[in-house]
Amino acid sequence: MLTVRSRLTSRNTARSLTDTALVVRIRTREQELLATLDSELQSRIDDLRTNATTLELTDDRLIETSALICVAGRRALGISFYDVQILSGLTMSRGHVAEMATGEGKTYAAAFPAIIHALAGRGVHVSTSNAYLAERDCAQLVPLFDRLGMRAAHIATQQPVDEKNAAYQCDITYGPGCDFGFDYLRDQYAKRQAPVGRLGDNFLRVLRGQELNRTPTLQRGLIASIVDEIDNVMIDDAGSPLLISGQPEGLAPDAEAHRAAMQLADNLVAETDFRIEATTGVTQLTRTGHDRIWANSDNLPLKILLRPWNSYVEQALRAKYLFRRDVHYLVRDDKVVIVDQSTGRIFEERSWRDGLHQAIEARENVPITAEMQGLARVSRQRFGRLYERLSGLTGTAIECAAEFRDIYRLKVVPIPLRLPSQRRLLPPRYFANDEAKWSAVVAEVTQVHAKGQPILIGTRSIAKSEQLADHLRAAGISFELLNGKQDADEAAIIAKAGRAGAVTIATNMAGRGTDIRPDEAAINAGGLRVIATEHHDAARIDRQLIGRSGRQGEPGAASFFVSADDDLLVRFGESLRTTMKRSTTRTGELDGDWTAAIRKVQQRAERDAELARRQLFQQDKTRDILMDRLAGAPH
Predict the structure, then answer these.
(1) Share of residues in the chain with pLDDT > 90 (%)
(2) Cα–Cα 20 to 30 A to 391, which of 107, 370, 535, 630?
(3) From residue 366, how far is each of 260, 266, 289, 316, 485 by CA, in Å?
(4) Do the Cβ atoms of 102 and 548 come closer than 8 Å?
(5) Which tens digit of pLDDT belongs to each residue from 286-319?
(6) Neighbouring-strand partners of residue 329
(7) How far, CA to CA in Å, does 26 sit from each of 21, 54, 91, 99, 141?
(8) Largest interatomic CA distance in the chain
(9) How far apart are CA 613 and CA 617, in angstroms?
C-alpha cells in the first residue's frame, strides 16, 4: 500500500505544488477583500458569472472565486476555511478525486468546486451517500450560497415533482447519488414515451418563431457532479446498475412456483445435486440435480412459470445458502428489506432482480410480491461518465486509484493532513473462533471503559452487532447500538459516541459522513478508541472505520480483533481459516502475526469485486453499441 501511495504522490507533485502556490495567492487576495462591502462582493461574483460560460478554469478565475468564497464564509458561517479545504476544493475543481482524511471538513471543501462550477449557470449536482447527508450539507451551506447570490436546494426520493423540479433549477442541487441517476433514467424514459412528431415539424416551428416541442424533464442536463464519499457512491455501489421499474399490483402470479422451488431446494444435496461458488454467487445444478427437479414433473406449477423452472430452483438455492437474515436483509412487517453491505443502511424501496427477492420471501414465508418490471437502466459507471465534469472526495481513494483512472478517467490526489496524526494503531489480535474473540473484545472494552475513554466498536453485519450487544449486556456494560434497525436518528447516536465513557456498537454506517468529536474529558482520557471486530472485503472500508479516531490531530487509538469465523475468511479464505483453527492456543487466541496472510485473502475479495464491476460496465457498453446499431438499422 505504501508503494502505491508513494507512486501516486510523485505523479501528482507538480499539480500539488501549483495548487499549494495558488492557496497562498488566494489567502493574499482574501485579505485584500476583507474590507469589501457585501454589495461589492455580489458585483464581483456577477462579473465572474458573466465571464464563466464554460467549465474551463484559469488560475486568475480560481484565485478570485476562491477568495470571495473565503470572505463569504467568514461573514455567512463565521469560519475561516482551512488551507487543506481550499486545496481539496481546487483539486476537485480541476476534475480530480481528492483523498481527504476523515474529520478534515469535506462538506466545506466541496463548496468550492460547487460554487466555481455553478458560475457557468448550467447547474451543479452534489452527490452524497444518503438523503440525510444531502439535506444536512445543503442546509449547512445555504447561508454561504445566499451570501454569494446563489440558490441551492436538495432532492429526496419521496419528494413532490414540483419541489424536485424547483431544486434542479437551482444553481447547486444536493441529493443522494442514486437519486440523480434515477431521475436521469426517468427523464430518458419520458423522452422515449413521448409521441414522435412528423419529420420537419420542429424546423417549421423555428421558422414561425414558435417554441420547439420538448418533453418536460426534471434535470437540465448532466453538467458538473461533485461526489462526496466517491468511493462508496461510484465504486462500492457500482456492482449493481441503476434501474427504474414499474410495480405491478397485487402479489406475484408465480408465488406458488417460488414456494415449490424453495421446498425442493431444502431437499437437494450440495455437490451431488448442485454447486455454488461462494465468491461469485454462481449457482449451477448438476446432471443429478437437474434430473431430481424434474422427477415429479406432473405436480410442478409449470403453467404459472415466468422463466425456466431450473432458474426458480437455482434462485431458491442462492436464497437459502448465500443470503442471511440480519446480514443481507431484514424482515419488517412481513416484508423483506435489503441491507446495504457497504454501509449497513436499510433500503426500503429496493428489491433484488430476476426472482431472487421472491425466492427470499418464500424462504422467510412472507407474502411473495410481484417482480418489478424494468423500464430503464444504466450502470453507475456509465452514468458517472455522462457528466461533462466529474469529481469527488473521500477519505479512502488510493486503493482504487486504478479503477477511478480506467473507468471514470479520474486522477486521485492525496490532500495532506492539516495537523499531524496522533492516532495509535495497536497490534491486531487473532482468534480461532468467534466465542474467543467476543470474550477478548468484552475484556478490552471493560478495561478501556474504566479509563473513561469513548469506544466505537465496528461490526460487519446487524447479526454480529446484536451478538456483541448480548455479550456486553451480560458484562453489565451500557452502550448505544446503531445497526439500521433502530428508529433513532443516526447522527444523534454517533454525535454521542465521542463523549467520555461512551460505548457505541455500529455497523459500517459509522464510517460514512458523520463526525465523531470527542469532548475534552474524552481527549484527556486518550481520545476515541476504535475496535474493529473483523476485516471487510475492501481494505478501504477498514480504513474508513479506523479513520474515525484521531481526527484533526486529536489523540486516538484503533485495533483489529480477527477470528477464523469472520465472514471474509469463510467466503474467501477457507485454507487460511483451517490453518488458523489448527494454530489455536488454550485460550483460543493465536500466536504470531497473520496480517500478511489475511491481506492476501482481502486482496482476492477486492479483485473479484472489481472484476464484477468492470464486467458490468463492459456489458453496459456492449448493450449501448447493440442498441445504436438497431436504431440505425433500416426498417
Answers:
(1) 59
(2) 535
(3) 14, 17, 27, 14, 19
(4) yes
(5) 999 998 999 888 888 888 898 899 999 999 999 9
(6) 325, 338
(7) 9, 22, 14, 21, 20
(8) 90
(9) 6
Within 8 A by CB and 6+ apart from 458, the residues are 506, 507, 508, 510, 511, 530, 531, 532, 533, 545
Give CA 28 to chain center in angstroms: 37
Cα 564 to Cα 141, 536, 570, 580, distances in angstroms: 46, 13, 8, 6
Q: What is the rounded CA–CA span in Å between residue 497 and residue 551?
A: 14
pLDDT of 333-376, one tens digit each?
A: 888 988 877 666 777 777 888 899 999 999 999 999 888 777 88
DSSP 240: S
Give the pLDDT confidence of 55-79 residue by residue, as tens digits. 778 899 999 999 999 999 999 999 9
Q: In terms of DSSP bridges, do strands 373-378 and 346-347 run parallel, antiparallel, or are they unpaired?
A: unpaired
Task: Kindly report the number of other CB atoms within 10 A of residue 315's CB atom.
Answer: 25
Neighbours of 83 (CB within 10 A): 16
What is the predicted pLDDT for the residue at 451? 94
What is the pLDDT, as a whole number, of residue 627? 59
Phi, psi of 429 (to 5 degrees): -120, 145
DSSP string of 109-174, one letter each residue? HHHHHHHHHHTTSS-EEEEESSHHHHHHHHHHHHHHHHHTT--EEE--TT--HHHHHHHHTSSEEE
pLDDT of residue 223: 95
DSSP-derived letter for residue 549 is S
- 502 close to 573: Cβ distance less than 8 angstroms: no
Q: How far is CA 49 from the centre of its chain?
A: 33
- For residue 474, what pLDDT band results from cuts at 50, 70 and 90? very high
Chain centre to alpha carbon of residue 496: 23
How many helices, marked H, and strands, marked E, lie in the chain? 25, 21
- 34/28 Cα distance (integer angstroms): 10
Q: What's the whole-number mean pLDDT along residues 272-288?
A: 84
CB 259 within 8 A of CB 252: no
State how far the alpha carbon of 345 is from the alpha carbons of 159, 332, 460, in Å. 20, 14, 11
Select from 247, 371, 363 the least CA-distant residue to 307.
Answer: 371
The residue-averaged pLDDT of 599-619 equals: 91
Per-residue CA distances from 3 to 7, 9, 13, 235, 352 (Å): 6, 10, 15, 22, 39
**Residue 516 vs residues 91, 134, 137, 141: alpha-carbon distances, Å:** 26, 18, 16, 20
Write b or e for each residue in 175-194: b if 16 or more Cβ atoms lie within 10 A of its Cβ, otherwise e: bbbbbbbbbbbbbbeeeeee
According to DSSP, the residues that pair with 427 across neighbouring strands are none
d(CA 136, CA 579): 48
Whole-angstrom distance, CA of residue 145 vs CA of residue 163:
19
Q: Which three cell numbers stand for residue 491?
A: 447522527
Percentage of the chain modeled with pLDDT above 70: 88
* pLDDT score of 410 more than 60: yes
pLDDT of 13 higher than 80: no
